[in-house]
Amino acid sequence: MYKRNFIAAFLIVFLLGLFFQYNRTDGFMKLSTNIHENFGANGTFVEGSEEDKALERETFLILYDPMNLRSMFLKHYLERFIREQKKATLAAEIGAVPEIDRRYIGVIVTTGNIGAVAALPQIDQYVADGGTALFLDGLSDTGMPAGFAERIGVRRFGESYTREGIHMTSDIIFGVQSIGVSGRSYQTTTAAVSLDSAVQIHAAADDGTPLVWEMPSGAGKYVVYNGQRMADKPNVGLLAGILSLTSDTYVYPTVGAKVFIIDDFPAPVPEGIFPRLYDEVHLTTADFYRNVWWPQMLANAKRYGFKYTGVVIETYGNQVKGPFAPMSDRYTRSYLIAYGRELLKSGGELGIHGYNHQPLAPAGYNQEHLDYTPWASPEDMKESLRELRRYIASAYPDYAIRTYVPPSNILSPEGKAALKEVFPDLKIIAALYMGMPEDRAYYQDFQRNADGSYEFPRVSSGYIVRGDMLWDIVNVINTQGIVSHFVHPDEIFYEESAHTTWREMNEGMDAFMKFTQEQYPWLRGATVSEAAAMLGAYFDLDCRIEREGDEMRIISWNYRVPPRYILRTHKKPEAVAGCTVENIGQAAYIVEVKEPTAEIHFK
Question: How many CB atoms lie within 10 A of CB 321?
């Protein structure tokens, strides 16, 4: 009996010893693999029948001015925007008089020169019969036919000038009440107008000038955007809401993902202390990262359903000419192993930021005024990336890198070619959604390129999300159903954070994540790679919408995982078949399709 107990105890100790030795020698890193994951190709593919494909697609008629650059740009912008909603467009010049009837879900006019629109009588009749006409490029009463101003809800016109701010006064942007921005961050040229009492105002400027309104007319209505920024990215959710006014049951697909990127992580950790931080937490920088910052990040991700994508950097040096030697200090790789392992264990993903923080750009490429060192040659870029690949593979030999975030959001064509050669599994570039034109950064739309790679921009950033940025976040959620946010571990050290404590930053991050979870609980936490695969499914999806009385059918195909749709309606879904319907805000629902044909009956 004693001998058996001794042998059992010996075996347990021996196996535990093997376990800890395997762990100490990075053995578990070899288990961190994603190379067998089939990017974006999980699930059974659902094909559409020829009968389904022959069904008529919801179609908008766009009337544009071929002699006006802004009108032309808005036309092209709308065509792409509406195409992503799986609807069609037909365009005609404002001098033409096309047949306008209820085959169109809406008629859109992309010029404020209303008097030049030859088809105004036909638009009037279309609206009287129950259609919706949208005027999306401001208003001018010059040449406007007598009585037409009253039909679109305007009693009196004043002069046009620049107004600041936008504030929602209705629910056409869903998920949060009375959202808006003030001041110069939102400016547009508007007409001073006095409106009819029958008008419903959806948005107004800081001074109360109406920016978006609808006016009932006959069985239909007119919708007016009294500004000249409809094709600007800060307005994408507003545009989605305006388009939804064309139907009392408006449906479009959504991605439904929330992404959180940590730039420069894992990366070398600064040694010593940072006085302002030390005064607050009484820890060295390395101990702060290990014992405060990272545990809090993990706790927040778990609490609010996020997954992190950390983008690795090997050194903060500015070397841009080879050879590129491996880092000699004993700490850098240990940070990669310790933080990387916990990141992956939490459901996250490793991407790359670069060998160092120098943008992959040669001398003379754009940003001369920024403090970075241009690369000596494309071959030097590739050599540095090969060293980065070796560095990551030394800890994670079976891990495919799919995501790249360009340092300082700058990436040259030479840099992109070098990335593709050294990291052949790379699928996604994540830079910026928008910014100032003079910064000439790598600005992106959410899109799939011809080679199957993805542009997946970051929309927002920082630990404390303020009004302007919140407006951008909510607009993108209302359009494509994506949150794409990023932070840096060392933002506490920035000059801009000189008057901000770690406690305040942590509270800001908690508030942002809590807001996202509580206001948009249908968004699913995803790594960048997972979200890009979801974006690909969103692009691949096709559908048709049929309506009959209080019944609506969504017929879907070209998908592997159940697609989801945003439904904008003030009606109440009473019974469903082949789908689930979840309320996500005032007059907004998420429809998740379970069968190729989903049916919703409204009260």
Answer: 12
pLDDT at 113 over 60: yes
Which pair of structure tokens corresponds to residue 356?
Answer: 């160092």
d(CA 543, CA 226): 33
235 phi/psi in degrees, rounded to 5 = -105, 10
Is residue 158 within 8 Å of residue 149, measured between CB atoms?
Answer: no
Angle between helices 467-480 and 236-244 (to 10 degrees): 50
pLDDT at 25: 46
385 to 263, 312, 318, 323, 421: CA distances (angstroms): 17, 12, 14, 11, 10
Q: End-to-end CA distance of the chain: give it in Å, rounded.
A: 75
Coil, strand, or helix at residue 161?
A: strand
Over range 467-485, report the average pLDDT: 97
Q: What are phi and psi of 595, to 5 degrees?
A: -130, 155
Strand, coil or helix: 494: coil
Q: Are strands 551-557 and 542-548 parallel, antiparallel or unpaired?
A: antiparallel
Residue 371 burial class via C-beta count within 10 angstroms: exposed 0-12, middle 13-18, buried 19 and up: exposed
pLDDT at 515: 97
SS3 114: helix
CA dist., res. 452 & res. 433, Å (int)? 20
Per-residue pLDDT tens over the stretch 34-85: 765 666 667 889 999 999 999 999 999 999 999 999 999 999 999 999 999 9
Task: Please report the pLDDT score of residue 371 as a whole number.
Answer: 74
- pLDDT interval class at 364 (50, 70, 90): confident
- Spatial separation of the C-alpha atoms in residues 396 and 589, rounded to whole Å: 42
d(CA 483, CA 505): 19
Most distant pair of Cα atoms in the chain: their distance: 107
Q: Can you give the pLDDT at residue 208?
A: 97
**Spatial distance between the Cα atoms of 342 and 336, rounded to a whole number of angstroms:** 10
DSSP state of 137: S
CA distance 154 to 159: 13
Q: Across residues 554-564, what is the average pLDDT?
A: 98
Beta-carbon contacts of 521 under 8 Å, excluding residues fewer than 6 positions away, are: 584
**pTM for the structure as a whole:** 0.93
Distance CA 117, CA 140 (A): 12
Q: What is the pLDDT of residues 184-209, one digit of tens each?
A: 989 999 999 999 999 999 999 999 99
* H helix intervals, 495-554: 502-519, 528-540
Residue 273 in 3-state DSSP?
Answer: coil
Output the six-digit token pair for 9.
Answer: 């105890």
Amino acid at 366: N
What is the three-state SS of 234-264?
HHHHHHHHHHHCCCCCEEEEECCEEEEEECC
Q: How many residues does the chain have?
A: 603
Rounded to whole angstroms, how far apart are CA atoms 107 and 97? Answer: 13
